Amino acid sequence: MNLEQAIYQRRSVRRYLADPVPEEAVQKLLEYAMAAPSACNKKPWEFYAVTNPELLGKLKHTHMFTNYNSPMVIIVAGNLKKALPGKQKAFWIQDCSAAVENILLGALELGLGTCWCGLHPNDKAADAVREALGAEEHIVPLGLLHIGYPAETPEARTQFDEKKVHYLK
Ligand SMILES: Cc1cc2nc3c(=O)[nH]c(=O)nc-3n(C[C@H](O)[C@H](O)[C@H](O)COP(=O)(O)O)c2cc1C
């Protein structure tokens, strides 16, 4: 699959096969994630790759829109101790989001489906996930990514909308 195909084929998958995700594939996804750009190259991120069934169950119930049957999730979290100082601290959200998108696109190449479920700034969900992971206060879970072999294939599409484009020639 080339990059153009991956961009259009990346859709949220909400039904998965039970087959586990091979460890080499997880490793690849984490490598893709950490190749993402980040402000001043601070890389203020942490990744939690979860396959433990009990923990998976807990994580998926942390808010009402995350309860899908994927065999694993990756939580992408900001590490506020590694973030930029002052007002620029908030760049951690963009940094982690870039890492998320790399995972979502990279998964396509590996035949995997994904669904990005948002946590921060939903404090209740982010706190519940942090607690379930046993992580410290300076770790802020941004997104819970379901990952697995897809049991559904949403249609590829572009969503291109000329009205959203402002050409300044
Ligand atoms: C920040 C963010 C949070 C999201 N949270 C959820 C969620 O909690 N549950 C869910 O099923 N999908 C979630 N999604 C997926 C969106 O619903 C989905 O991307 C959107 O409807 C477009 O569909 P597509 O991903 O198939 O292109 C989230 C996406 C983003 C970017």
**Which of globular, elongated, flat, extended, rod-shaped describes the shape?**
globular
CATH architecture of the domain at 36-150: 3-Layer(aba) Sandwich
- What small-molecule ligands were found? flavin mononucleotide
| Biggest sheet statistics | 4 strands, antiparallel
Number of DSSP helical runs: 5
| Oligomeric assembly | single chain
What do the pLDDT scores average to?
96
Question: pLDDT below 50 for ≥5 consecutive residues: which ranges?
Answer: none
Q: How would you describe what is shown here?
A:
The structure is a single chain. 34% of the residues lie in helices and 18% in strands. It has a domain at 36-150: NADH Oxidase. It has a four-stranded antiparallel β-sheet, sandwiched between helices. The chain is built from five helices and four strands, in the order H-H-E-H-E-H-E-H-E. The mean pLDDT is 96. With 169 residues, it is α+β, with helices and mostly antiparallel strands. Helix 1 packs across helix 4. The chain has helices at 3-9, 23-34, 53-60, 91-109, 123-133; strands at residues 45-50, 72-79, 113-118, 139-148. It binds flavin mononucleotide. The site of flavin mononucleotide has 10 residues, from strand 3.
